[in-house]
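RECORD TYPE: protein structure
NAME: Ion transport domain-containing protein
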Amino acid sequence: ILIFIILSSISLAAEDPIKSHSFRNIVLGYADYVFTSVFTVEIVLKMTVYGAFLHTGSFCRNAFNLLDLLVVSVSLTSFFLSSAISVVKILRVLRVLRPLRAINRAKGLKNVVQCVFVAIRTIGNILIVTTLLQFMFACIGVQLFKGRFYSCTDEAKHTPEECKSVSRPPQVLSPQKSERERIWENSDFNFDNVLMGMLALFTVSTFEGWPLLLYRAVDANAINRGPIYNYRVEISIFFIIYIIIIAFFMMNIFVGFVIITFREQGEAEFKNCELNKNQRQCVYYALKAQPIKIYIPKNPSQLKFWRIINSSQFEYVMFVLILGNTLTLQSKLFTSVMDILNMIFTVVFTIEMIIKLLALRHYFIDPWNSFDALIVVGSVLDIAVSEFSLFSYPDSKDNTLMKTL
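PREDICTED:
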């Protein structure tokens, strides 16, 4: 059923919205008949097994099952009625709910949706406080900026009276331009009333284009006067305080509360469990743990190499050498010395790889060993190419990609 839901969602997205009678839409229409038939059979079988709605645990007493029933009913209704009817067109829009049917089949998705609804019910107080703060700042903004965001389309004019005439551009500079009527217009986002102020502050809280509103407020002059550059720079404190309280503080409280709600809902199913969270994680780890296969060679000479590469001293030495090799990449003041040290480190890492190849039978099974081998081979090739390039082209620069890795 989940596969059919995914396929039906894909077919819904693949429809041609322009050519409704195209060959692709005809094929997808037949596929829609198949999907709807499968979903109808599924609902009939579930109602037969669980019952319709008369007793506890019946099909229609689950909200997700009602969503499935709604989607299938919409599809069946659109099939039996003519597509020219406007009601059918509206019903077909509801087919976008098809992907939501996957929620009832995946436990993780269902838990997320349930947590979202619980969070919405429990964050009411935070929303009320945020709305009150938004209203308070909007009222302050109205007192500070009411009627001050007006300006003339001709920036040289600063009053409505001056803006009434017609703008005539200089013929010397722009002889092709015609006369343009001046307009005394308001900003799209302003503080002329509380509602517009709340809308303007909402754009500030989203951090999308809010510097333009800030600059408009800083340049705002008296009522019925055009803007003056940096007329009141100190007014920017209003927006800074708003961003700190609303955008940073309240939004973080909102997000934190949602996270806490998700965590509590995740722990709700274990409220009657005698084990705490750490103990449950230990049990899960023990159940999912897989034995680690360790290869110990039987050949005496190979066993010696195996003991060397598995000793802590060998790991410490290689770690120090890796750090030393990294330090040589930081400075280019002593190029010849750094090149010699790089060759030495490459030789040491090559010896390490050879020892591991001798000690371990399946060296390349471990991804980290394969990665180390790739770096060593690349470093050797890097040195070879660099030496050849310096011999053939003395002014060429070497490639340090493998060195950086």
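COMMENT: The chain has a mean pLDDT of 79.
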